[in-house]
Amino acid sequence: MIINCLVIDDELPAIEQMEEYISRVPFLKHIKSFDNAIEPISFLKENTVDVIFLDIEMENFTGLQFIKTLSHKPLIILTTAYDKYAIEAFNLSVSDYLLKPISFERFLQSIDKIFDHFSGIKQSENSSKQYKKDYFFVKTEYRYQRIDFEDILFIEGMREYLKIHTISEKIMTLQNFKTIEEILPDDNFFRVHKSYIVALNKINNVEKNRITIGDKIIPISETYKDAFLNIITK
């Protein structure tokens, strides 16, 4: 597997460092570098890129403005000297946020997640929704946190956040329901309400339009009720 990379930064030393890091990873391929965020827009219309290493504060047109122009986004790894853009960046679904100066070790941590992402796509192409791993990672505050599927009780939507209730803790993340549904194994997780996904093997009982999981009562909406009852009574 080869992952094609683009570098966008208005500082030559930063570009050279990122190119050197990319060259040290066998499955990464450096395609091109740009010293501004305007020229890559037309380049991306004609070339396939998997990952963009993107600076934020650039003259005339910022990295965040650039992201907003993309209709079909490659994975974006931000490389910046400023942490003040972190919340806005993750609202734009960037894959990682690397603060300069960037060590090679931190670079590899980011690439490891990228590799897992593309490995997952390849697996799903070969077989519909097969899960090699029994866990996933979510972004919470300024770190990625591992969550084991088996530990999840239910997931609750809270406006732009999700609260993942597990056996031991509650984890807040900026993920949306669509993204999380694509990650969860569909043989044990089911959406029962616009604001709830439940783990079927953690349900204590179902009564009328309510599900009990531990000491929590979860509503079942009419939209999902028939499909849910069909699943649990098979």
Distance between the termini: 40 Å
Q: Can you tell me the overall shape?
A: elongated
Proportion in β-strands: 25-35%
Compressed to H and E, one letter per element, the order equals: EHEHEHEHEHEEEEEHEEEEEH
The CATH H-level superfamily of the largest domain is Response regulator
- Do you know the CATH topology of the largest domain? Rossmann fold
Strand order of the largest sheet: 2-1-3-4-5
Rg (CA only): 20 Å
Q: List segments where confidence is low: pLDDT < 50 over at least 5 consecutive residues.
A: none
Number of domains: 2
**CATH architecture identity of the largest domain:** 3-Layer(aba) Sandwich
Structural class: alpha/beta
Share in helix: 25-40%
β-strand number: 15
Alpha plus pi helix count: 7
Which features characterize this protein?
five-stranded antiparallel sheet; five-stranded parallel sheet; single chain; OB fold (Dihydrolipoamide Acetyltransferase, E2P); elongated; 234 residues; alpha/beta
What is this entry, summarized?
By secondary structure, this protein is an alpha/beta fold. Helix content is 32%, strand content 32%.
Describe this protein's structure:
The protein is α/β, with parallel strands linked by helices and 234 residues long. The chain folds into 2 domains: 3-126, Response regulator (Rossmann fold), CATH 3.40.50.2300; 135-232, LytTr DNA-binding domain (OB fold (Dihydrolipoamide Acetyltransferase, E2P), Beta Barrel). Helix content is 32%, strand content 32%. The chain contains 7 helices and 15 strands. The strands form 4 sheets. It has a 5-stranded parallel β-sheet with strand order 2-1-3-4-5. A 5-stranded antiparallel β-sheet has the order 10-9-8-12-11. Strand 6 and strand 7 (143-148) form a beta hairpin. The longest helix has 23 residues, at 104-126. The radius of gyration is 20 Å and the shape is elongated. The model has no long low-confidence stretch (mean pLDDT 89).
